[in-house]
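Inputs:
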Amino acid sequence: MSQSYDRGLVEDFGRWREFTAGMWAWIFHKFTGWVLVGYLFTHIAVLSTALQSPDAYTTTIQSLESLLVVRILEVGLLAVAVFHILNGLRLLFVDLGVGLESQDKSFYASLVLTGAIVVASVPTFLAGVFG
Amino acid sequence: MSTQLPDQVEEESTETDAEPTAAPQERRLASKRDRAGEADRRRQAEEADKALDDDTYHLKVFRYDPEIAGKKEPRFDDFHVPFEKGMTVLDALMYARDTYDSSLTFRHSCRQAVCGSDAMFVNGQQRLCCKTQLSDLEAPVRIEPLPHAEVVKDLVVDMQHFYDQMEAVEPYFQTNDYPDGELEEQRQTPENREKVKMSTRCIWCGACMSSCNVAAGDNEYLGPAAINKAYRFTMDEREGEEMKQQRLKILEQEHGVWRCQTQFSCTEVCPKDIPLTEHIQEIKREAVKNNLKFW
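Outputs:
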């Protein structure tokens, strides 16, 4: 709809404090989706070093994994992927018309579950990087 | 107490209104009326001030008037309205208009959530003012016109686009599937009535359309209200199979049901508690079932 004057960001994302569960789920799903698409390209770039020689791939992976930043990014990637999967399941149920009245609860559940899985994975992901 | 920000503008406009070609008697009468009105207003304001000590609600109301130079810049006016038990946001607005500033403009009619004319943006959510209790809101209560619609004046927005979308789905019963006998009634089963029951409650207030992020970015999107209206007739068995196909053809277009991204904003704000997202999703499934053939 057109505007007689510019209300600026106030009209959408300036209202983020007032967003409800469904809106947050949508924003997070979009965001995680784009992050995963971005990761896909770096993933292909790293994997394609194996085209040169097996050694090149090994050294690339080893040097990457020795960086703390990469380990932390990996935890972030896990969080993003897990949320995207869980919210994707939620959206599947929404599409099937099952349990629409508890869509907000399922969003919170997917958030909590994501948090739990990420916390549980931290020891595995950060193992050896400080050693 | 007065909340009229551009005072001199008010005076100017009253002067220019009263001055030209008024006969002396008329002018005297006018000034008498003015004085009476003023006394009346002063008394009301005093009463209001007295009440202010007791229990008042602080309203912050959006003001904008493109026709008056001093009011072109959008701003918020503060009103302190004495609270009464059971007072709705609409009651408070009417009190503010009648007591403090008669130029405060907003739509209202039935005051009982039937006409759908007073949907506004109250404390960050689209609500029907006559159905929203002041006591449920946190003070100060911020009242703004519906987002994503052109503001005509103060709290009044242009609803034309919304009505266009509503009409695009042919929001009326039509059928060519008549019963056999000439005087036979077109009967609906209780189950079918139950299925469309919630969707018939729509009062065309436009709250859902205003809350929809997708509709805001896509002018051609039908919007939740229009799809709900279409649902009401698509699911009505009395319209017959042929009419259902025709309705689905409208709905499954590019800017029809498939624009919905299930943010649940519309369902969240609907003052009549219509499960809008559920209806949109059901139309989506209908459309898929209609087009997918496995043989």
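Remarks. Strands of chain B lie at 56-63, 75-82, 119-122, 125-128, 141-144, 151-153, 156-157. Chain B touches chain A at residues 64, 66, 74, 123-125, 147-152, 161, 213, 215-216, 219, 261-265, 267-268, 275, 277-278, 281-282, 284-285 (CB under 8 Å).
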